[in-house]
Design a protein that fits this description.
mainly beta; about 0% helix; elongated
Length: about 110
């Protein structure tokens, strides 16, 4: 989920420690607009619902982020630079996060 570092968009205990979840649902929506044949801009929204216990399936809490970025098309896939802003950060969560990647996600 853009807006968080890897493994940080997860339930926390009362001390703010990551404790993990037994179920989650993730939805992403993005709009990409070409500027040139190689460059494009993207805006996105990511939503994550999770539950620490399976009894609360499908989720009992949620995190939401929005953001934007730039993409460059290359032979190995897109080079992506994106920033996700957290709409409802919890105590200890970042306001947002910069992500850099290349290639297609699996």
């Amino acid at each position: 989920m853009r807006g968080y570092q890897e493994d940080q968009a997860s339930p926390r205990n009362a001390l703010g420690q990551i404790i993990g979840s037994e179920t989650f649902s993730l939805a992403s929506v993005e709009l990409e607009q070409a500027l040139t044949p190689k460059f494009s801009v993207v805006i996105f929204s990511d939503s994550l619902g999770f539950a620490q216990k399976i009894q609360n399936y499908p989720f009992d809490a949620g995190l939401f982020s929005v953001g934007g970025g730039l993409r460059l098309r290359t032979l190995i896939g897109p080079v992506r630079l994106e920033y996700g802003y957290n709409l409802n950060p919890r105590r200890g969560d970042p306001t947002g996060t910069v992500h850099f990647s290349f290639g297609f996600p699996f």
